[in-house]
Design brief:
Layout: H1 6-15, H2 20-34, H3 41-193, H4 199-230
Helix pairs in contact: 1-2, 3-4
């Protein structure tokens, strides 16, 4: 057991301001009431050794109990896992069957929907084709009217142009005839007045005039032929 120093206790109490009589009374009380319950290091070592031994025994017992409990729990868990696996397999099979049935139903519905959509599209295409044909017919009729009007306008303008050219040609031909008549009359007057010594010259002049007139006449005929081809 540990030894309690009462004198040291009294001294410290006096240093703290406690009167000596009270300090001695407190020291005796400490020595009588507290010291019997204080343990020495040897006591503590013995107690610790005893507690350690008890703890080792308890730990071994707990370890054994835990091993047994863990084994039982492992068995229960394995059984539970097997049960859950069986339930999941059954549920999976049922779900797979439900999904197959659902997929078959959706496939049938989609086929029906696609068939209906195809029929609607075909009807819409037919209606669109009819509308386009009607529109094309209307455009064709309008174009034919436009082309007819344009042809009539071009034909009228061409006739007017041809008539104008014909008038110009007639005017030119009349002028040529009058000029030729005047030249012929002049040549005849010259022939009457000239002497025989210029007969050869007159004949040469007449020949040139005939050649020139022939060229003019050929050009006029060619122009008339071109106009008739245009008509």
């Amino acid at each position: 057991m540990a030894q309690f120093d009462t004198l040291e206790c009294v001294r410290r109490l006096e240093d703290a301001g406690v009167e000596r009589e009270q300090a001695e009374a407190h020291a005796r009380i400490y020595a009588d009431m507290i010291m019997p319950d204080l343990a020495t290091k040897a006591d503590l070592r013995m107690e610790i050794g005893s507690v350690k031994a008890d703890l080792l025994v308890e730990i071994r017992s707990v370890r054994s109990d835990l091993k047994a409990e863990i084994g039982s729990l492992r068995t229960d868990l394995q059984a539970e896992v097997g049960s859950i696996r069986a339930v999941l397999q059954a549920e999976t099979s049922s779900l797979r069957a439900d999904l197959r049935a659902e997929i078959s139903s959706v496939r049938a519905e989609l086929k029906a929907e696609i068939g209906s959509l195809r029929a609607d599209l075909q009807a819409e295409i037919g209606s669109l084709r009819t509308d386009l044909q009607a529109e094309i017919g209307s455009v064709r009729a309008d174009l034919q009217l436009e082309i007819g009007a344009l042809q009539a306008t071009m034909r009228r303008e061409l006739k007017e142009e041809i008539a104008s050219v014909r008038g110009d040609l007639k005017t030119e031909a009349s002028w040529v005839r009058s000029e030729f008549g005047a030249v012929r009359a002049e040549l005849r007057g010259v022939e009457g007045r000239l002497e025989r010594r210029i007969v050869d010259q007159a004949r040469l002049t007449e020949h040139k005039l005939k050649v020139w007139f022939g060229g003019m006449q050929a050009a006029t005929v060619g122009l008339l032929v071109t106009i008739l081809k245009l008509l």
